[in-house]
Specification:
The chain is an alpha+beta fold. It has a single domain, classed as Jelly Rolls (Sandwich), CATH 2.60.120. Helix content is 22%, strand content 23%. The strands form four sheets. It has a six-stranded antiparallel beta sheet. The radius of gyration is 19 Å and the shape is globular.
Length: 274
């Protein structure tokens, strides 16, 4: 994986003093960042392999088992999104390794600047069966008004879709619309069907899709083999936290903050803004 270095100066010397520069070792080329900006996504094939992939799979399995009744204890109908697990870094130490994972975090910092924080880490697990488990065309972060106000701030966030199983017709392909994150004058139609211009991604387990949160995308139905994925998201530090799920009162990130360095505090939402 090609890399390059970016240097930022944070124009907040009143609070930072002399420590106002940040150097980012970006795990991407300038051309790849340009593609991410233009098309809204970037594929990293086989980013997680061997024991790293197995560790994430095992951690997801533990949570599926412990939270099964909470999510699937009651019948949900003929169609669903499967199981969605929230606040993973508070529930299993295996996920804490992703907080500062350079191939993902450095790209978020390159695209949004050094002052970013964790938006969340979730898992989505789908199973074959009578219930059709898939997602309609959607986007993850949309607070746009029409017409655009003069001082409107375009919402930006980076999602890393980490696939722990092969993406295939059996598990459910992911389809996305390149460039749709920049479409501020419309929202995705409510459909499970293909739309003109979308692309399908066939990926091996351990691959990652780095995606602007507002890219239109959908997950195909899981037909004959289950599908496990993680969604690791970063946003500017001045955004509010994710509204989804309930953070455990005794979560692991609270313990981590007790002796955390400044970068860890910022990533977990403590500091990084005025």
């Amino acid at each position: 994986m090609s890399r390059h270095e970016l240097r930022y100066e944070i124009l907040n010397a009143h609070n930072l003093g002399d420590d106002c520069t940040r150097t980012i070792d970006v795990h991407a080329t300038p051309d790849e960042l340009a593609q991410l900006d233009r098309e809204g996504y970037l594929v990293r094939a086989g980013l997680f392999t061997g024991s790293a992939l197995a560790t994430l799979r095992d951690a997801v399995e533990r949570l599926v088992e412990s939270e099964w009744e909470q999510h699937r204890g009651k019948a949900t109908g003929k169609r669903s999104w499967g199981i969605i697990l929230r606040h993973l870094m508070d529930k299993d130490p295996a996920f804490l390794e992703l907080l500062k994972y350079p191939p993902i975090l450095s790209v978020a910092q390159a695209m949004m600047g050094p002052l970013v924080c964790l938006r969340g880490l979730s898992a989505r697990v789908t199973f074959p069966g009578a219930e059709r488990q898939e997602t309609p065309l959607h986007q993850h972060l949309r607070v746009v008004s029409r017409p655009i106000p003069p001082w409107f701030s375009v919402p930006h966030s980076l999602d890393a879709l980490i696939y722990l199983d092969d993406l295939s017709e059996a598990t459910g392909l992911v389809s996305l619309m390149p460039g749709s994150h920049a479409w501020l004058d419309r929202q995705p139609p409510d459909t499970y069907e293909p739309i003109d211009g979308e692309i399908e991604l066939h990926l091996k387990a351990g691959s990652v899709v780095l995606m602007h949160s507002n890219v239109w995308h959908r997950g195909g139905p899981t037909l004959s083999a289950r599908r496990r994925m993680l969604i690791l998201s970063y946003q500017p530090t001045w955004f509010r936290g994710s509204p989804y799920g309930v953070q455990p009162e005794d979560g692991l990130t609270k313990k981590l903050l007790e002796n955390a360095d400044e970068e860890t505090k910022m990533l977990l939402g403590v500091g990084g803004y005025t």
